[in-house]
Amino acid sequence: MKNINYGVDEAVDVQVENQHENKKTTKKTTEKIYDIIKENPYISTKDISETIGNITADGVRYHINKLKKLGVLERVGADKGGYWKIKS
To answer: Is residue 2 in some structural domain?
Structure first.
């Protein structure tokens, strides 16, 4: 009889490790974006993505939305001419 679970435990362990590593990477990226906005509240998502280098403008928007949901960041004004406000 074949063992249908062969390799499943190892695959699950690798997947859990990858998810944990992704959370660390996501947290670091969010922190980078926060720091960049703190230095220049008038920066655009495109400029943030170019500054970081390995993330798209959509990826930056994803992290900004996380910061907004946490109540740490808010947009004041229009997309052009507005700025990011860091809440304390």
So the answer is: no
Please tell me the total count of domains within the chain: 1
Cα 32 versus chain centre, distance:
9
For residue 50, the enclosing domain spans 8-86
27-85 residue pLDDT tens: 889 999 999 999 999 999 999 999 999 999 999 999 999 999 999 999 999 988 999 99
Contacts 24+ apart (CB under 8 A), 16-24: none
DSSP result, 54-67: SS-HHHHHHHHHHH
